[in-house]
Amino acid sequence: xxxxxxxxTGQVLPERADAARNRRRILDATARLIAEQGPExxxxxxxxxxxxxxxxxxYRRFGDVSRLLLAVLDDGEQRFQEAFMTGPPPLGxxxxxxxxxxxxxxxxxxxxxxxxxxxxAAESASPGARYQSGAYLAMHTHVSVLMREMRPESDPxxxxxxxxxxxxxxxxxxxxxxxxxxxxxxxxxxDSLLGFS
Length: 197
Known about the structure:
Order of helices and strands: HHHHHHHHHHH
Largest sheet: none
Strand content: under 5%
Shape: globular
Distance between the termini: 26 Å
Mean pLDDT: 88
Low-confidence stretches: 1-5
Number of strands: 0
Radius of gyration: 18 Å
């Protein structure tokens, strides 16, 4: 599959210089708020105040808190997409589909554990927003392609949704904080569930 077929997050239409500056100011202000007070402190009003601009500008640019938090995660997401689309195997092309899927799901698990606080805030702000985000669409497309190669007789679109369903911040918080599991234990569980050796 050509790289251009995947909906890469972060790809935006060319924008005016002032719009680009406003976007950067909003994202930087949001990142500062998260670093200083945690993601629960992120509101559209708080971000507007921290960025020194009107709240209407923040709403026009991002729409809601969930989209704003997802945008903060975007830089890391772009690097992740580069790795699974064009990077070295087993995550990138060149490895068997099962090996690529295992590597992919392990990295997704690591990312949720590392960025869980922001992801949980985005999930809570708008639970359904995940499925419309560029990040989810790219992951779903990638997993669908791998499932089509692994199980051509199945419906890869449905399987991809079902495989990605447990990869939500609330479950990972429950497993790592509530149950005290390490990231390696979570990934061993993924391997066992999916029959990876």
